[in-house]
Design goal:
Two copies of one chain form a homodimer. Chain A is mostly helical. The first copy, chain A, has 28 helices and eight strands. The first copy, chain A, is elongated. The C terminus of chain A is likely disordered. Chains A, B: Keywords: Membrane, Transmembrane, Transmembrane helix.
Amino acid sequence: MLKRYFPIVEWLPSYDRHTLSQDLFAAVIVTLMVIPQALAYALLAGLPAVTGLYASMLPLVAYTVFGTSRTLAVGPMAIVALMTAAALSGIVATGTVAYSEAAATLAFLSGVMLMLMGVFRLGFFANFLSHPVVSGLLSASGVLIATSQLGNLLGISMSGFTLIEQLAGLATHWQDFNGLTALIGLGSLAFLMGMRRAGPTLRRLGMTATLSGFITKAGPIIAVMISTLLVWAFDLEAHSVAVVGEIPRHLPPLALPSLDPSLIGTLLMPAFLISLVGFIESVSLAQMLAAKRRQRISPDQELFALGGSNLAAALSSSMPVTGSLSRTVINFDAGARTPAAGSFAALGVALVTLYLTPLIHFLPIATLAASIIVSTFTLLDARGLKRTWRYSKRDFAAMLATIVLTFVSGVEVGVMAGVGLSLALFLYRTSRPHSALVGRVPGTEHFRNVERHTTEHDPTVALLRVDESLYFANARYLEDTVYAMVAERPALKHVVLISSAVNLIDASALESLEAINARLDDSQVKLHLAEVKGPVMDQLKQSDFLDHLTGEVFLSTYHAWEALHDEKTAVKPTRDTSSS
Amino acid sequence: MLKRYFPIVEWLPSYDRHTLSQDLFAAVIVTLMVIPQALAYALLAGLPAVTGLYASMLPLVAYTVFGTSRTLAVGPMAIVALMTAAALSGIVATGTVAYSEAAATLAFLSGVMLMLMGVFRLGFFANFLSHPVVSGLLSASGVLIATSQLGNLLGISMSGFTLIEQLAGLATHWQDFNGLTALIGLGSLAFLMGMRRAGPTLRRLGMTATLSGFITKAGPIIAVMISTLLVWAFDLEAHSVAVVGEIPRHLPPLALPSLDPSLIGTLLMPAFLISLVGFIESVSLAQMLAAKRRQRISPDQELFALGGSNLAAALSSSMPVTGSLSRTVINFDAGARTPAAGSFAALGVALVTLYLTPLIHFLPIATLAASIIVSTFTLLDARGLKRTWRYSKRDFAAMLATIVLTFVSGVEVGVMAGVGLSLALFLYRTSRPHSALVGRVPGTEHFRNVERHTTEHDPTVALLRVDESLYFANARYLEDTVYAMVAERPALKHVVLISSAVNLIDASALESLEAINARLDDSQVKLHLAEVKGPVMDQLKQSDFLDHLTGEVFLSTYHAWEALHDEKTAVKPTRDTSSS
């Protein structure tokens, strides 16, 4: 119990000086690297920049205690920040204290939901989104996030959570365009994009892969330093270049978030969707990294840990957090060994907040916007789009619909549509299961599809193999299939349902089987079962179906054939071709 | 094309005098029997009583043209009426013209949705609700409908769409209690309940089963006549006994319903849920009756026909309609042969509206309430509850949750929760598929679960059979299963995935297979496939998975075993027990 909910007790006792030094080194790197990102994502969520720093302290400590991944780093994340802004925009005015309070409430709700889902082991909820839908959602969100920053990049004030709103905002406020801001923004963008590709060049200049890797990842902090210096040196703030400005030099105020019932009512659905998206992102990431180091994570405990992190965020006047890709990759590459690295990074961010925020005053918003835009590149998955198109047109359709809906109606609708489409697609597939009439391969105990193989069959016996579990979505289809088959074969006396691929018969399918049994009985046709799996048989025995069954339950199709077929009417195979 | 959308062209050419006389007879019976019900359901929906008559004219004609069931009778239906009231109650004030107009708009939206679903062949949507959930929904709705009528029965003015609201309404308005109304109401109730059970007594008195059947079903019309006479004779209207009152003596005004965008926006979701519930009720009913007469119906065309009926309802200032159980049973028992009977009944209702409504003036509402309460008895399914409990605790949990939610939050929430629970349950089941390591049954080409059978196996070869299609909900579980297995078996060199029960590999599962392939490769373990079904193989060839696959694709498990196992390491069976 203790180990389940507090994985820290597993690794802390064996924590030694060597691990400490590795974790400390990683924490220093992470602290430096993620400050710009933390500020940027707070702005993306419509919150004061300092909220991003707050979100990078206590939540990290909570994850140290509850998390099962050794290297996952939690904190603000782009898509979650965008969803936070979308959830709050209609309810409270941006920039007000009420807005910040509502963000904390959102983190609180998300935290409670995630923790409860963890306690009830609902980690499988993440499976409700198929990979193509998640990939489409991430790509479309990336584009939305990038376009949302075009205004900050060019000095144009705009907002909007759909592509149309954003483009309309850009078009109508075009006159706000500020040349100096654009120069800094586009300059930062060009620099950051260059840095991303600088790795090979740096290595050619003789650097080790590790060092060149760090320098390329340090792009944002370098851009921040240079642009801050420029703004300070040339007093560009006076020329309408927006800057981060004054940041309060204290630790996050600890307080219970607002629990106003009407606010909670409005935020329940957004909180659920944010939790879902955050969890899926986070757990995929944690699983990928655990696989690299041959470690294992527990999805249910990850839910609990993310819930704890969000509660910590809520109690420290912050915003919803989740496992962040860029943060985690830096942490992993810097050699973090345990979740303690996260707590050390939290300490680092606290020190920065207390002593170094005056340096951030002149940091231009346009540079942060550029760093957000560059970070969205990792979300775009054009290759996935192409692969899915080749592999399955239906999966591709779900993916495309998710992308289009996210563009047109925002991330929330995109997530809901994605879940709906994933499920609808699967249900549609399983609601018309494949089934085949089989016949005996002459001289053997094997039975194969009569359409594909040369088989022996008997017009009085139909051997029907159903290739799917029987459940509510296909129960009616099964009835239709059997009735149609019986209607076509007037000589029929026996129908054998071969259940080798039936892993489940739910209550709906049981009712259909009873209906089939009764209807066939009216036509003097007996219903038999064959190859019923053990667990399915155990469950059938809980009902009185087997008492009413007009026929028998056979162990194998061969037993059924031997017992039912009539030597006089059986037809020897006449087809002389045999395909697969 | 013509035959698909206008099934009338199939039966009309062979329509003869004999069929005509049967249909006419059924129409007369239906007209007489359903008048009280039509009035009652309109009141249940919060509409003027005459709306129920309007809903029993043009919609029936539309069904004659478009319907595929020979005996289904459309019209107002209890649950749909309750849902109509719930949908409109928050938006417009009951009793106003705007309320009636909104009801027509609801019918219009429902009609458009149903028609579109029919055109796009989305009849399988009905499969999204499992039988236990539908049964729970009907039972709970029945109780809600019955309690909603307690006020009318006792002369207490109350309203509410959840059990709590209703009981609170009864409690707070208890002082309205009207003794005379209660006498009529409870008297009618006792009479109707007695009539339902009078069948055996009447037959013992020498009546034929048909005649006694009709007399028992005529209960409501007899109760209506007697109570109307009493109210008229003793002028009970002056003693605060509520009556139907003046009914306009004209045919329904034909008009386009209000298409106010904000009204439509609010009604979209209720319209969808009403369509879903109405369709499920109607199509189950039609299928049951078609089965009795060895006819077939087309669910997709039924959607189209119900859509047409609702459009007809909308254009004639009426309310949402669907296939009605009680109406249909009367029609079927009265011997209707074709949908023409519906049109004749529509004519009958029109004649009643024009010439006989003055007779209805003194009909007490309490009697109508009693007839509604009695009609809900057919919705209660206590036996289903017990059966489901015995057969499957999970299905029972979904059923119970649907019932509780319907009581607490109303029918709309009940439907949505029902759909959600049905799906969640199924996904949960398939997200953890059964899988088994199999070994060779000595001396044969058969492979069975090593846990259950005496088999020959090889520590370097794992033969893993997965008993489920591989799709997004279980893709991650498959990865976990394989990794856990490999971690336990250090000697492993080959993993063979036996795919005989895999009917589908979707894009998510493909990614998981690729991840498994790569990860096993890291550990010098080869991944092979065996018994891949034809269509699955065809789809795999659309991706480059097979190019990267470290192992081979074998036709059968036996082929894989022969190629991979090592005579030196293979272990002959040592267990001497053999179970099923």
